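To: structure desk
From: M.T.
Subject: fold request, one chain
Message: Could you run this one when you get a chance? Sequence is below, nothing fancy, just the single chain.
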Amino acid sequence: MTGFKLDERIRLPVELALTATSNDPLLLRKQEESARAIGMTGAEIDVARRGFSFDVKTSMAIALALAVCEENRQRALRTGLCARSCAEIEKMAAAFRQSGSRPTAGFT
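Reply: Done. Structure tokens follow.
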């Protein structure tokens, strides 16, 4: 399926979910500023930090990042994320895990 682009509107909610348990107030403040700069509402920021989104494709991207597994990858592909985007999301999740960030519970 074409038309899906892994842009900041997808990347930032994934990052918010992956770093939701961070105790770094500077990081959290910077993320909130970035989110507002791209037009995210307070509600969108809050649900992203809980591992969800109001948008189905963004929810699938978050789910894939929080629980990288074949089932989530297949669900993400069916939702319209391409294999390349899935791989980028998985790589992003791995980088956050290596940096010590603890992801929250994901979309089921």
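Reply (cont.): Residues 102-108 have pLDDT under 50 and may be disordered. Let me know if you need anything else for the meeting.
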